[in-house]
Amino acid sequence: MAQTGSVIVTGGASGIGFAVAEDLLRQGWRVVVVDLLAENLSRAGAALSAHGDGVRLQQADIADEPRVEALVARIAATFGPLKGVVNCAGIARDVPALETSVALFRKILDVNLIGTFLVAREAAKAMKETGGGSIVNIASISGLKGNLGRSAYGASKGGVVMLTRILAVELAPFGIRVNDVAPGPVETPLVRELLTPETRAGWMRTVPLRRTAAPDEICGAVAFLLDEARSSYVTGQTIAVDGGFTAGGLIGL
């Protein structure tokens, strides 16, 4: 069934973002893929070329306020109405807290938290004028549980969870719903770079389903939250797509 608007997917040229963009295009959404890296956008454009003018590619640093303001305004004016946003762009490092520099902490906050806020804020301004929409922020189970090596990343994603709840309350009068999806370990290029054999084994001992997720296993939750017909009364919520990690207690003996 064709949807009646456009969706911005940040970090949409690789990993979870690309899987989400591809899934939404199949559902009939018009999708704007936003990414920082030109080479990723080039590969994504080739892979999504069958969708023709239903997809647009935009290079942008989501932590750059003037760039985000101009980008969202242009999308709303020329590719709208803007009805959805998926804030998927993010960076991560596994570094013990005592070895984490302030510069690294700030860099991760800039992209993961401030970038999410900027895109959501500007999208909400556009949605307010066209009857509402849905914002889905990609958080993480590291924003819900105290995972080793994730002081900066976990703090940024915990911030995304609280930001989601506050935006949901403030934007509800305008018909704008805001939710977040908190993935567990997902087989993306970023995660493969982060996980050592030891940390991967640790995850496999702790995740009840005993495996990582494929990127497209995150798409269903995102699509549900964007779909007004299916989730019109859902806002301010976190959906953990984590193989049971956040529900887990003692696993095995």
Description:
The longest helix is centred in the middle third of the chain and has 28 residues, at 102-129. The protein contains 9 helices and 7 strands. The chain is 45% helix and 16% strand. The protein is an alpha/beta fold and 253 residues long. The mean pLDDT is 94. Helix 3 (65-78) packs parallel to helix 4 (102-129). A 7-stranded parallel β-sheet has the order 3-2-1-4-5-6-7, with helices on both faces. The chain starts with 5 loop residues before the first strand and ends in a 12-residue tail after the last strand. Helix 1 (15-26) links the parallel strand 1 and strand 2. It has a single domain (6-244), classed as NAD(P)-binding Rossmann-like Domain (Rossmann fold), CATH 3.40.50. It is globular.
What features would you highlight for this structure?
253 residues; alpha/beta; Rossmann fold; seven-stranded parallel β-sheet; 9 helices; globular
What is the end-to-end distance? 48 Å
Known CATH architecture: 3-Layer(aba) Sandwich
Instruction: Please tell me what the overall shape is.
Output: globular
By CATH, the superfamily comes out as NAD(P)-binding Rossmann-like Domain
Structural class: alpha/beta
Query: Number of helix segments?
Result: 9
Mean pLDDT across all residues, rounded? 94
Q: Estimate what percentage of residues fall within beta strands.
A: 15-25%
Measured as a percent range, the helix fraction is: 40-55%
Strand order of the largest sheet: 3-2-1-4-5-6-7
Number of domains: 1
SSE sequence, one letter per element: EHEHEHEHEHEHHHHE
Quote the CATH topology: Rossmann fold
CATH class: Alpha Beta
Q: How many strands, which pairing sense, and closed or not: the largest β-sheet?
A: 7 strands, parallel
| Topology, number of strands | 7
